[in-house]
Amino acid sequence: MDINNSGLAARKLSIKLMLALGFLGLSLVSNAALAVVAATSQKVVLVPTLTDTVEVGSGGAVDRDYLERMSRDAIYLFLNRTPETARYFEAQLERIVDPATYQEIKTALIKDRQDRRETKSSQTFFPSEFYVKPGDLYVEVVGRLQLSDGVSIQSTETKTYALRFARHGTAVRLKSIVEMEAKDRLGARAKAQTEADR
Prior knowledge:
Layout: H1 2-40, E1 43-45, E2 54-56, H2 64-79, H3 86-96, H4 102-119, E3 122-133, E4 138-148, E5 153-168, E6 171-180, H5 186-197
Antiparallel strand pairs: 1-2, 3-4, 4-5, 5-6
């Protein structure tokens, strides 16, 4: 009787051991699959003002909408300035500027803040047109720049700014923002070419 019981116990133990090894194998395969998915998955960037979700993966081009919205935010920070808001904009720099050009841009903004305090002037930029070239991480923004003394508008001009971005993994940072001549606009040339092709 004891031999039968010990044989039955051995079979039960063998079945339990096989089940445990099966679950262990399944767990290892599942964890490996999750690791592969996590390593190759794209990040979804959630920005409240975007009309749709955009993705910035570890490879490939940056989404056109994401670059345009990032340009809009950079333009807002750099071109809508008053003596009172200058320090706030400088503090936000670190979040959007490429570390390689951070110090150069910050120095220019500090000089601009000092000039604004002396002249007590403000400026406002109203963007009207964006040209985005995602593969080159390049954006052109055209709009009206208004200068005022706090009481009245002193001047209004149409300006074009070129923004270049740098990419570090999935992080996209502003590398430079420079004013450009209207005749040098890539966006105007691309638009003219598109109309000529029709």
